[in-house]
Amino acid sequence: MPVLIASSAARTCLGDEQETFAALLAGTSGVGQLRYYPQGRLTVNRGYQIKDSGEEQPLRAGAWLAHCVARAVAGAGLRPGQRVVALIGTGLRELRAVELWAADGWPLRAEDLHFGGAVRGAFPPVSAAITIANACSAGGHALALGQDLLELGDADAVIVAAADAMTESMLAIIGRFDEEPAERVRPFDAFRRGVLLGEGAAAVVLVRDDASPARPSARPLARLVSTGLSCDARHETAPDAIGIRRAMTSAFDRGQAAPSDIGLVFAHGTGTALNDVTEAAVLAEVFAGSSPGPLVTAVKGAVGHTSGTAALTSLALALISLRTGLVPPVVGLREPLPEGRDLRLVTGDPQPLPGGLVQVNAFGFGGVNAVSLVEAP
Fold first, then answer.
1. 270 and 142 within one domain
2. What is the domain count for the chain?
3. In the predicted model, what is the mean pLDDT of residues 159-175?
4. 216 pLDDT above the threshold of 50
5. What is the pLDDT of residues 107-132, one digit of tens each?
6. Which CATH number covers residue 118?
7. Is the pTM of this model over 0.90?
8. I want to staple 142 with a disulfide (CB 3.0 to 4.6 A). Which of 32, 85, 89, 203 is the partner?
C-alpha cells in the first residue's frame, strides 16, 4: 500500500535540501580539504565535510539528525496523541565519538551511539526510536520498514531519518584502495578515481495515504509507492548485479509498476571502479525495452558518499525534482563510462523532469540493496 511523504528535511556539506539542490543545478561540488583528522596518518585529505564552526565537537551526526527531525516534524504538523515511531538509518552511527573517547577521553555514553536521545530531544512524544546500521542502504531499508509499520497499523506516522559523520577509521580504509586517493567523486565517468566520504543527515515523515492532514492546507510532498530490498551476501564489498537487479524488480512488483513507468533514476553512483560499472550495466539491462528510458542522475559528485544517509539524501533531492520539474546534472561527470553510454545520464545543464515514477537506488557492503519508487502526490 503506498504511503504519503508528508515532509522532508536534509543537511549536506552544501547546506539544507534547498541549498543543496540549487548547488546541484549549478554543477557545484562541495569537496574540500578535511578538518579535524591527523593528516600525517591518513592519505585521504579531501572530502565533503559539513563545515561546523569552531573545534570539533562529539556527536556531530546526532546534532544534524536532531535538526532535520525537528524540521521534518514541524513540516508534517503531527497531531497530539498520534503514535509516532522513528527509524534511523546509518552506516557508522556515532563511531567518530568513540574515536574521540578512545584518543582524548571525550565523555560518551553507550546510548549516544544509537541516536535515540537525539530524536527524542527533537520530538519527545516519539514512542520508539530504532537505529538500523545497515551499511550504505540503511536509509532505504528504514523507508521500507516505515511503510510496513503504517500498512500493518502499528503507527500513525513514522519518522524515517538517517545521519552519518566521517570517521578516521573509514578515511583510513578508503586510503588503502589507492596510493593517490581521488580528488573528487565523478559518478559514471570513464576516468573516475574512486569515492570520497560525505557527511549529512535527512528525515522524512511518512503517513498513511488515507490519513487526514494535520492542517487543512497541508499538502504531501510525494507518495512512496514501494521499496524493493535484497541481500545477496555474495562478497564483503563488491556489488552483485543479480542482487541489485532483484531489488529493482522487487520494487516494481511491490509497486505494480513496470520499467517503462520510470521517468527518472537517482542512481547510487559512488564513482568507484566496480559499483558504477555494475549499476550502469543493470540499469541498461532493466530499461533496455523502455525506449527512450529514464533520465539518470546521481548526487555524490556534489555531496560525497554519505554512507547510510545516502538513500534519504537522494530522496530529499528527488522530492524537490518532483516539485520543481527539474533534474540536476551528475556533478563531475564529463565522459560516461562505456557501460553507461546507452543511459540517459544528465550532464551539463539541468533537464526537465519526465513524467512517471522516480526511482532511488542505494546499495551497501555485503549486498544489502534498497530501491525505492516515489511519485507526485
1. no
2. 2
3. 92
4. no
5. 888 888 889 999 999 999 999 999 99
6. 3.40.47.10
7. yes
8. 89
Containing structural domain, residue 295? 222-375
**HEC sequence for the chain:** CCEEEEEEEEEECCEEHHHHHHHHHCCCCCCEECCCCCHHHCCCCEEECCCCCCCCCCCHHHHHHHHHHHHHHHHHCCCCCCCEEEEEEECCCCHHHHHHHHHHCCCCCHHHHHCHHHHHHHCCCCCEEEEEECHHHHHHHHHHHHHHHHHCCCCCEEEEEEEECCCHHHHHHHHCCCCCCCCCCCCCECCCCCCCEECEEEEEEEEECCCCCCCCCCCCCEEEEEEEEEECCCCCCCCCHHHHHHHHHHHHHHCCCCHHHEEEEECCCCCCHHHHHHHHHHHHHHCCCCCCCCEEECCHHHHCECHHHHHHHHHHHHHHHHHHCEECCCCCCCCECHHHCCCEECCCCCEECCCCEEEEEEEEHHHEEEEEEEECC
Same domain? 308 vs 200: no
Q: What is the pLDDT of residues 340-376, one digit of tens each?
A: 999 999 999 999 999 999 999 999 877 799 999 999 9
Residue 93 lies in a domain: yes
Residues 243 and 185 in one domain: no
Judgement on whether residues 88 and 230 belong to the same structural domain of the protein? no
| 187/244 same-domain check | no
